[in-house]
Design brief:
heterodimer; A: about 230 residues; mainly alpha; two-stranded parallel sheet; 12 helices; B: about 110 residues; 5 helices
Chain lengths: ~230, ~110
């Protein structure tokens, strides 16, 4: 949720509470029983306090935290998925392995692990367009795409992708012809999806590395297509 | 469970906020919290289902108001307490209970 929407919701809650302060106090009491300290007043301070406590208790090691952050900021991300897709575009045998046993094919390139243990790759064609969502939470194939963007975890995307996928795609600037079938894949805690986008036309002479550089995250979630910049000669 | 987290098909949640060149984390606390959550997960006191269930227990109004990492923090703190890795008194005070045993961190799995 972005700042504007959160701001809006906060305002809405404030207005509601002014109108029914007593009810809200009661609701908060229930909420307090339901889940203690659901509202961190200042996340920065709260995380600092939690980190100090967990380090003091010997439950975490600060150096390990730094390594985790570095891994997901710099090492694991959509570049990995782009390598998988580019390989599938240039190597038909690899593509076949990827579509039949994604885990093994992805592991061939050295990727795998947490939040990507059971992968399914779905192929876009001129007749079929695939879109991935996690309506219940935020499930996403970490080893090939890294951590999900905020919009992927947001209420608008999670709620609407399954009832109005074409509308969602239009919001991303992708208008699909009526005759193209749209398939929406709802991720689960175990099963994670990667879209194999269509290879753009006029890219026959491009190397695998050049192709990989064209492939952006959104195309592998299914909210965009891979475009070859117009005017360039392949 | 048919709670607020089960969002598929709900209407009127507004436009999707697509951010160009989005950073992995939007604030340092998000990064620190993400790493803390992963490191605590390495204790294997709960699995992904328990973690998601705990997230779905956040009351609906709060669920909609909080960001992803704020929800994650609220839910994981409950799991820390339930699994007896920390006590609520320690969470509230920010201090290790006097005389409590000090653990040795478990290795985190970074082989992704």
């Amino acid at each position: 949720m972005d700042a504007t929407r959160r701001g809006f919701l906060k305002t809405a809650v404030t207005v509601a509470s002014a109108a029914a302060a007593h009810d809200l106090a009661h609701a908060q009491e229930l909420a307090h029983d339901h889940i203690h300290q659901a509202v961190p007043s200042d996340p920065t301070l709260r995380v600092k306090a939690l980190e100090s406590l967990l380090v003091e208790k010997g439950l975490v090691d600060r150096a390990a935290l730094d390594t985790l952050i570095d891994t997901y900021e710099h090492k694991v991300g959509p570049r990995n998925g782009a390598r998988v897709v580019a390989r599938a575009w240039v190597d038909p045998a690899y593509k076949q392995r990827l579509l039949t046993n994604a885990d093994a094919a992805i592991a061939e390139l050295g990727y795998g692990g947490q939040q990507g243990e059971h992968m399914v790759v779905v192929e876009n064609t001129p007749k079929v367009h695939n879109l991935v969502v996690c309506t219940l939470c935020s499930c996403y194939p970490w080893p090939v795409l890294g951590l999900p963007p905020v919009w992927y975890k947001s209420a608008p995307y999670r709620s609407r992708s399954v009832i109005d996928p074409r509308g969602v795609l239009r919001e991303f600037g992708l208008e699909l012809p009526e005759e193209v079938e749209v398939r929406v894949w709802d991720s689960t805690a175990e099963l994670r999806y990667l879209v194999l986008p269509e290879r753009p036309p006029n890219t026959e002479s491009l190397t695998e590395d050049t192709l990989a550089a064209l492939i952006a995250r959104d195309a592998m979630i299914g909210v965009a297509k891979v475009r070859f910049p117009q005017g360039d000669t392949a | 469970m048919n709670g607020i987290h089960d969002m598929g098909g709900m209407q009127d949640m507004g436009p999707i906020q697509h951010e160009k060149n989005e950073p992995v984390f939007h604030a340092r606390w998000e990064a620190r919290w993400f790493a803390l959550r992963q490191a605590m997960g390495a204790w294997r006191k709960w699995n992904i289902d328990a973690s998601r269930y705990q997230g779905s227990m956040i009351p609906p109004v709060e669920y909609l108001r909080l960001s992803y990492y704020e929800r994650s923090m609220a839910a994981t703190v409950e799991l820390l307490i339930k699994s007896r890795l920390v006590t609520r008194v320690e969470i509230d005070s920010g201090k290790r209970a006097l005389g409590s045993a000090k653990a040795i961190p478990v290795p985190t799995n970074n082989s992704v």
